[in-house]
């Protein structure tokens, strides 16, 4: 009996010792977990980027409770409140690629979205709300989900699965993750405030830059429309950078159909006709720019977009459109409409100021032209005319026919000089630079010289300024621009010539010695040239052979037959 009692006492002591050691280890583990939690809070607070904070949260949560997999789903907008962002930890790249699309907030994940409270499960698959796993997904059983709150709003949910040792998550695990989620909410809010401040700074910097750029531009000698076009292109580029958009453009709806007049973000041809005109009055957001018809048909596919009017109290410069691809749709959700709207308001004022300054400069130029014209007419022409009359009188008195012929020839040259001066005076008196077709042709050729390897040779024949009808001029300029653009992009030519002859017909011929049109060349641009000619009762002939260059001959009658 004494031996049995001694055995019982020994057994009780061993059990008690194990219990004491277990509790001591538990206290040590708890202290280690609290230290790790404290370190995690400090570490999260040190990162000011939202993506960095989210990644740190899931990594820390996994270590705190010994979970093999961790994820944080950010709840998006909309009636179904899908997950807009899903940050995960524990799965390698190959597994993620095999799974394919990340969760959108269905099944168990959707259950926590609908009821934002902690949830612990022994086996995910046994829950009635489980959707199952897609092919290639690693097996998961134990589960712990906790909402992450920012003030009174649920920002997202923290998900943990597969606790080490194959056991369930404990109540202590839940308390630790709830504490981590509370600290994470503060860190996320700080990161979002920081990013919002950065976005505001970008818009303020863009506004300051566009104002400075337009106020510092020198419009002397540049047509008002060209000043405005350059300014609009600057506005579009700055807006796209500030918004982080994939594509930005300005829509001009002053004509019969809305046209994109300036584009930033991709190499597309402008102006380009778009299907629908955005709202001219108020900023708005659309889920799909392509479906809404705000983008041209041959542009890259786009997703959500923001539209803001570029207008002042008495003038409209169109509508600014900022668009994102479907891959970058999350950037669209981060845009506050007030920021691009304020930028557009300031940009419209800057455009108006730039246009007014250009008008002022034009007025000064025309005043100088008027003075020069008066001087040429009142002084130079009158003197030349007097010299010519004197020479004519002298020629009649000469006895030698050879001398008389030479004097008459000099009189003829003086008459031709007077005609040239009068033509120059007429050109100086033209107040609408846009109506000066010859100047527009020369400007297009000068602009093409910047992209071509050589400067195109320009030959003008006939009264280009006066005989080309007003309805033909815009088509002629468009055809010339398209032909020079094709030569610059595709021909790789060493020589390009432009010949414009005006008589009974307006004949434009653009020739290059490049590689010629390939057999599978797209007909879209060339078809437009032919259609323009046919609409005016003319024709367009395109001659090309591989390695032998290309000739475009576009001819329309000067007067339409009834």
TrEMBL record:
Pfam families: GAF_2, HATPase_c, HisKA_3. The keyword Kinase applies. SMART domains: GAF, HATPase_c. SUPFAM superfamilies: ATPase domain of HSP90 chaperone/DNA topoisomerase II/histidine kinase, GAF domain-like. It comes from Nocardioides abyssi. Residues 471-560 form the Histidine kinase/HSP90-like ATPase domain. InterPro entries: GAF, GAF-like_dom_sf, HATPase_C_sf, HATPase_dom, Sensor_HK_TwoCompSys, Sig_transdc_His_kin_sub3_dim/P. Keywords: Kinase, Transferase, Two-component regulatory system. It comes from the Bacteria. This is GAF domain-containing protein. Residues 49-198, 227-361 form the GAF domain.
């Amino acid at each position: 009996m004494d031996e049995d009692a001694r055995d019982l006492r020994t057994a009780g002591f061993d059990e008690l010792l194990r219990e004491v050691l277990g509790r001591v280890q538990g206290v040590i583990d708890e202290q280690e977990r609290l230290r790790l939690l404290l370190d995690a809070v400090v570490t999260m607070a040190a990162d000011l980027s939202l993506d960095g904070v989210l990644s740190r949260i899931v990594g820390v949560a996994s270590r705190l409770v010994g979970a093999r997999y961790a994820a944080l789903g950010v709840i998006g907008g909309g009636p179904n409140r899908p997950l807009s962002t899903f940050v995960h930890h524990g799965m390698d790249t190959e597994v993620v690629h095999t799974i394919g699309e990340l969760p959108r907030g269905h099944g168990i994940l959707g259950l926590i979205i609908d009821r934002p409270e902690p949830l612990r499960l022994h086996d995910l698959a046994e829950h009635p709300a489980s959707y199952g796993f897609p092919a290639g997904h690693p097996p998961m059983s134990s589960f712990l989900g906790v909402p992450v709150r920012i003030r009174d709003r649920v920002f997202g949910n923290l998900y943990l699965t597969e606790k080490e040792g194959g056991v369930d998550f404990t109540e202590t695990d839940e308390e630790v993750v709830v504490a981590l989620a509370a600290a994470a909410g503060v860190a996320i809010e700080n990161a979002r405030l920081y990013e919002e401040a950065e976005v505001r700074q970008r818009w303020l910097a863009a506004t300051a830059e566009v104002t400075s750029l337009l106020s510092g531009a020198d419009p002397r000698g540049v047509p008002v429309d060209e000043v405005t076009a350059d300014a609009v292109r600057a506005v579009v580029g700055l807006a796209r950078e500030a918004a982080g958009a994939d594509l930005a453009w300005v829509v001009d709806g002053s004509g019969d159909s809305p046209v994109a007049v300036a584009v930033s973000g991709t190499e597309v041809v402008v102006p380009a006709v778009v299907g629908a005109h955005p709202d001219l009055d108020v900023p708005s957001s659309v889920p799909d720019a392509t479906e809404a018809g705000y983008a041209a048909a041959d542009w890259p596919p786009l997703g959500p977009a923001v539209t803001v009017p570029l207008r002042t109290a008495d003038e409209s410069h169109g509508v600014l459109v900022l668009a994102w691809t479907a891959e970058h749709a999350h950037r669209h959700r981060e845009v506050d409409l007030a920021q691009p709207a304020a930028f557009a308001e300031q940009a419209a004022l800057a455009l108006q100021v730039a246009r007014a300054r250009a008008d002022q400069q034009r007025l000064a130029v025309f005043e100088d032209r008027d003075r020069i014209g008066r001087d040429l007419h009142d002084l130079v022409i009158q003197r030349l005319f007097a010299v010519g009359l004197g020479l004519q009188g002298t020629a009649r008195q000469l006895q030698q026919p050879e001398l008389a012929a030479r004097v008459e020839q000099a009189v003829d040259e003086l008459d031709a000089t007077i005609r040239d001066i009068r033509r120059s005076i007429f050109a100086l008196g033209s107040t609408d630079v846009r109506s000066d077709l010859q100047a527009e042709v020369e400007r297009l050729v000068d602009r093409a010289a910047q992209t071509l390897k050589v400067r195109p040779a320009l030959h003008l024949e006939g009264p280009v300024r006066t005989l080309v009808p007003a309805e033909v001029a815009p088509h002629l300029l468009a055809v010339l621009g398209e032909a020079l653009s094709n030569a610059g992009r595709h021909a790789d030519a060493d020589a390009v010539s432009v010949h414009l002859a005006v008589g009974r017909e307006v004949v434009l011929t653009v020739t290059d010695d490049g590689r010629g049109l390939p057999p599978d060349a797209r007909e879209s641009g060339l078809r437009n040239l032919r259609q323009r000619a046919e609409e005016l009762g003319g024709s367009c002939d395109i001659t090309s052979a591989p390695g032998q260059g290309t000739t475009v001959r576009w001819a329309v009658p000067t007067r339409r037959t009834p």
